[in-house]
Design brief:
Helices cover 34% and strands 24% of the residues. By secondary structure, it is an alpha/beta fold. The chain has an eight-stranded mixed sheet, sandwiched between helices. Strands 3-2-1-4-5-6 form a six-stranded parallel sheet, sandwiched between helices. A two-stranded antiparallel ribbon has the order 7-8. The chain is elongated and about 95 Å long. It binds cytidine-5'-triphosphate (CTP).
Length: 412
């Protein structure tokens, strides 16, 4: 592979202590040149070989060091950092870092981050040949390779050659260009939804009463935005039809801002008509009613006149409309059910009434609106699965993994 593109991809580079650390500077430069974004984490031993100043200048980001700095943790905590990345790269990967990760040890920033990440890790080992050949190191490497899922380790190198210590054999860190190719390869197979189109609704709707007032609800849009981010990260082309919220669109997601339910429906239908949609996730809290005859001017308070009588009419059901069979029906339609009681019965009733394929039921009597956490039950036509309270991001990633599994089983 030559000149791979890493456009829009994020790499977290962990630099261990070893003479090969000087090559990490060139690696940072190559990642940037390929269009990727890179954040660096320098271990205490790594800082003996390269300076945070050079890394910061090349990467354009401040360097995380193996000292728990409160200001760093406030800007982006190590858990957040490990999730921010599409891929974690350890170069040079020392025998110590490999041993810690293989055995689940977390006693410094690098090892904690390696344990906390839900992303694939690419290892570029660098050590003396006797160390590399030692059965303990080889056992740790095999262990890392055997881990399933996201955590499965990929390796690049070590190469054979003369080493800084004067010995000859396997142990030299792979050249930065080879590591760059391995990064591109590792990222390319982490896009299981590439080629799939997704349409997501999120947030509340706002139903105008007059030019200054309206009816809305407490939805923050956080769960829907997290689903959009998770699907985009897995390679889907995501359109997010969003009611008014205080959130930025996730990276790589196209957002269509709307206000009223009727506008949301029109935007969704426009998407379905423009090209076939594989995945529809209708997470918006759509107002069930809108005001009939929105006043064109501000409704004035007439002294002694009493409150105005608002006539409400029913809004279209977007989820039901999307679920209707026909040539433009998405392959997988997922709805949400916000309930304050009888979650299972109500969610199952919605599943069949609206004609969607899955329903994510959440109990909104708990702390859900605006919060970063959620607890849900996923109802499919075959059964249900409950997910204990966790972050909305984790819920979204879990849902995204189920979507990936669904398309693996039903590729058409
Ligand atoms: N929904 C929709 N359009 C509507 C109402 C709801 O697309 N006009 C979708 C929501 O996005 C969600 C699902 O339908 O995916 C269920 O929404 P919810 O508010 O829980 O249900 P309602 O149908 O409004 O029923 P109720 O308010 O009686 O619980």
């Amino acid at each position: 592979m030559s000149n791979p593109t890493l456009l829009g991809r994020r790499v977290l580079l962990i630099i261990g202590g070893g003479i090969a650390a000087y090559k990490s500077l060139e690696l940072v430069r190559l990642i940037k040149k390929s269009g990727g974004e890179v954040m660096t984490l320098l271990t205490k031993a790594g800082a003996e070989f390269v300076t945070p100043m050079s890394l910061a200048a090349l990467s354009g980001h401040s360097v995380r060091q193996d000292l728990f700095m409160p200001e760093d943790e406030t800007a982006m905590g190590h858990i957040e950092l490990s999730r921010w990345a599409d891929l974690v790269v350890v170069a040079p990967a020392t025998a110590g870092l490999i041993a810690k990760a293989a055995n689940g040890m977390a006693d410094d920033l690098a090892s904690t981050t390696l344990l906390a990440t839900d992303k694939k890790t690419l290892w570029a080992p660098a050590m003396n040949v006797r160390m590399w050949e030692h059965p303990a190191v080889q056992a740790n490497v095999s262990k890392l390779k055997s881990f399933d899922g996201f955590h499965r380790g990929a390796f690049v190198g070590p190469d054979q050659g003369e080493m800084a210590c004067g010995e000859f054999g396997f142990g030299r860190m792979a050249e930065p260009a080879a590591i760059l190719d391995a990064i591109a390869a590792a990222l390319s197979d982490s896009k299981p939804l590439a080629g799939r189109k997704a349409v997501i609704t999120a947030g509340p709707t706002f139903e105008a009463i007059d030019p200054v007032r309206g009816l809305t609800n407490r939805s923050s849009g956080k769960q829907g935005y997290a689903v959009a981010a998770a699907l985009a990260e897995l390679g889907a082309e995501v359109t997010l039809v969003s009611g008014p919220v205080f959130l930025n669109p996730p990276a790589g997601v196209r957002r269509i801002p709307v206000e009223a339910a009727t506008e949301m429906l029109a935007a969704v239908e426009g998407e379905l008509k423009s090209s076939p949609v594989d995945i529809a996730v209708m997470s918006a809290a759509v107002a069930d009613w809108r005001v009939d005859g929105v006043a064109t001017g501000k409704i004035k308070k007439v002294p002694g006149g009493g409150p105005p009588a608002l006539q409400l009419i029913e809004n279209p059901d977007i989820l039901a409309a999307v679920s209707k069979s026909g040539p433009s029906r998405p392959k997988l339609v997922i709805g949400f059910a916000a309930e304050t009681s009888d979650l299972e019965a109500n969610a199952k009733a919605k599943l069949s009434r609206k004609g969607c394929d899955w329903i994510v039921g959440n109990d909104v009597s708990q702390d859900v609106f605006g919060s970063d956490g959620n607890a849900v039950t996923l109802f499919t036509r075959d059964g249900s699965e409950s997910w204990a309270r966790q972050s909305k991001t984790d819920i979204a990633n879990r849902l995204a993994q189920h979507i990936v599994e669904h398309f693996k089983a039903n590729p058409q």
